[in-house]
Specification:
Blueprint (H helix, E strand, L loop, with lengths): L12 E4 L5 E5 L2 E5 L13 E2 H7 L14 E4 L5 E5 L2 E7 L4 E9 H4 L5 H4 L4 E4 L4 E6 L2 E7 L6 E3 L5 E2 L12 H4 L4 E4 L5 E5 L2 E5 L13 E2 H5 L2
Antiparallel strand pairs: 1-2, 2-3, 3-4, 5-6, 6-7, 7-8, 9-10, 10-11, 11-12, 11-13, 14-15, 15-16, 16-17
Length: 224
């Protein structure tokens, strides 16, 4: 079980890397789940983001030591992490992250994003349908990744509201209607969405239908 004395109030970000492990950040700490079926983090976790960045020789990342707003592995194999109005891009060699670019301005580098997203992004996620989703408050945008490494285009008709018409979220999931804390596609092909100490799960690749029996608490489902 987690070595925290009290249950985690919320996840800040989630992402599954090519090694199959799902990583979760909570403030300045991060957890690793090597198998998504685990009901508690790997032994020895949490660790601090700062210690990992320093041990990896990453410089200029001090603004990220206290936590991430979102993180996502894009189809180009690059890991993107955001904090406030900044983002950084990393490569992954199977063991270590290497800083490739950043911190950079979201507003300057992603000008197609709606203005409210440019000051900070709540969640980023690549789902099983190969679409990339950004959320901010109760709004979300969807992107399609093209053949080029940096070719990413917002789909027509966005932003849209998080609702039953999109994420299958009705009044019964009122906390989630206001927005998400973290979203990740896990190695089991299921999408996990957390909000305020709870989470829901989707088995369909478009995240339209919430699996029966949810929401569950982070403490019961993730052991934190």
């Amino acid at each position: 079980m987690s070595n925290l004395q009290t249950p985690v109030a919320k996840f800040d970000s989630m992402c599954t890397l090519p090694n199959g492990a799902t990583y979760v950040t909570v403030g300045p700490l991060y957890y690793r789940y090597s198998n998504i079926a685990q009901t508690s983090p790997d032994a020895g976790y949490p660790l601090t983001i700062k210690s990992h960045f320093i041990s990896a020789g990453l410089t200029g990342m001090e603004a990220f030591y206290e936590g991430f707003d979102s993180m996502c592995l894009f189809p180009n194999g690059k890991l993107y992490i955001t904090k406030g109005g900044q983002y950084a891009r990393f490569t992954w060699d199977g063991l270590h992250l290497t800083l490739e670019k950043g911190p950079l301005s979201i507003a300057e580098r992603w000008p197609s994003l709606p203005l409210e997203f440019q000051s900070g992004i709540d969640t980023m996620s690549l789902l099983g349908n190969d679409k990339i989703y950004f959320t901010k408050g109760n709004q979300y945008v969807r992107y399609t990744h093209g053949p080029g490494v940096h070719d990413i285009t917002m789909d027509p008709g966005y932003p849209q509201a998080i609702s039953a018409a999109s994420w299958g979220i009705t009044a019964a999931y009122s906390d989630f209607l206001a927005g998400f804390d973290a979203v990740a596609l896990a190695s089991n092909g299921k999408t996990y969405v957390s909000k305020n100490g709870q989470y829901i799960r989707y088995s369909d690749i478009d995240a339209f239908v919430i699996d029966p029996g949810y929401p569950l608490t982070l403490q019961n489902g993730w052991g934190v």
